Amino acid sequence: MSDCLFCRIASGEIPARKIHEDDDIVAFHDINPVAPIHFLVIPKRHIASMADVTDGDAEVLGKLMAQVGKLAREQGCTDGFRTIINTGRVGRQEVYHLHVHVLGGEEVLPAMLKR
Ligand code: 5GP
Ligand code: ZN
To answer: What's the distance, CA 8 to chain centroid?
Structure first.
């Protein structure tokens, strides 16, 4: 049994509102959405963060990226969306299993980060 929250969601041990699952990835609604549409896409394989990605992860992560646009449209992002990958302490990552946030909905997102 893994002690990683998102590994446990990927395996089905912890429930989540899944919107997609295949051999390599899972997508599910964020439990604490910060936009009208907010879901996460993760590799089933445990990769702690973007800082830990290696060449061997390229195929799975390519497959992940290939699903994002289709999933976003299916969830109602008809006019674009934002993707965020928080990495490590500076990136304020909270769950150390690589995940892509997909955020959308009308006029809810601030402009790109500014100081
Ligand atoms: P991070 O800050 O690591 O980029 O984002 C972690 C995200 O995971 C947060 O947006 C948080 O709301 C979400 N999250 C944390 N625990 C759970 C959970 O048990 N289920 C789901 N669906 N989302 C979670
Ligand atoms: Zn994990």
So the answer is: 15
